[in-house]
Write a structure and sequence with these properties.
By secondary structure, the chain is an alpha/beta fold. It has a single domain (6-282), classed as NAD(P)-binding Rossmann-like Domain (Rossmann fold, 3-Layer(aba) Sandwich), CATH 3.40.50.720. It has helices at residues 15-26, 73-78, 80-100, 132-144, 164-175, 192-204, 223-233, 264-268, 275-282, and strands at residues 6-10, 31-35, 43-44, 62-66, 104-110, 117-121, 150-155, 158-159, 179-182, 186-187, 190-191, 212-215, 221-222, 240-243, 256-259. Helix 1 (15-26) links the parallel strand 1 (6-10) and strand 2. Helix 3 (80-100) runs parallel beside helix 4 (132-144) and helix 7 (223-233) crosses helix 9 (275-282). The longest helix has 21 residues, at 80-100. The two termini are 32 Å apart. This is RmlD-like substrate binding domain-containing protein. It holds the Pfam family RmlD_sub_bind. Residues 7-279 form the RmlD-like substrate binding domain.
Length: 288
Amino acid sequence: MGVNGSLLVVGAKGYVGAAIIAEASRRGLTIAGTSSLGGNGLLPLDLAHPEKFDYQAVSKDWTIVLTAAISSPDHCSNNYDNAYAINVTGTTHFIERALARGAHVIFLSSDAVYGEAPFPVTEDTPCRPVGAYAEMKLEVERRFQSDPGFKVARLSYVFSRQDKFTRYLLDCAANGITAEIFHPFARNVIHLGDVVDGLLALHDRWEATANVVNFGGSRSVSRLDIARAIKRLVARQLDIREISPGPDFFKDRPREIQLVSTRLESLLGRPLRSIDQAIQIDFNIGDH
């Protein structure tokens, strides 16, 4: 599969999906996308009813990046049947049909498949998922793990100025509201640009890349660390208050996952960005 092949992003309106579409378009790739309702140039694909999708549109020349899912751990736990129908049943149906058409599929999974990990976990670390969301992701992974047309990108927390938490911090700073920050709560945060570049490199170097790649940063970063970095570099007026999430918050999500990769920097051809570098890039601050 080469860089000139077609790329289909499932979940093109989502946070990661929209960024892939934008960067792939900038690079001149032939690209298409799906959304649950379609329209505006997007193909209609509802993972609750994947049998309705027009699979004739998928060819062996495509790489499909499957970003769509119900990703809220709380929703997956509290509305298990609904989430399972989309995250496992519908997703599995779609992947099976896409692979049968000869397409390649990159499945976006989660660092939560490793469970609580206050120590570095690599692609070779055994999975011990915490919460329904992680269990669903791992079930799909295992269903297709031996298929050469299927690869897994396990994502940690993906930072950009558009992520939900950073938008919350910026809104608090703009409106003079104290930002309440859950602590302890940490991940090996990765910049959205690193994720997009890595996924496009995986598309370009399919045969040369292992079946599982961890997309995590080089060190553990807490939500409090992110807030302090935003305050230091972007919004000095930001007022921060540390609060405890409480035990129920961690029922479906680990406190810390130190997701690292033995493969990602080689795939990127460059070092991963630190949280300070990511902020400087996204907010166009100084040299980066």
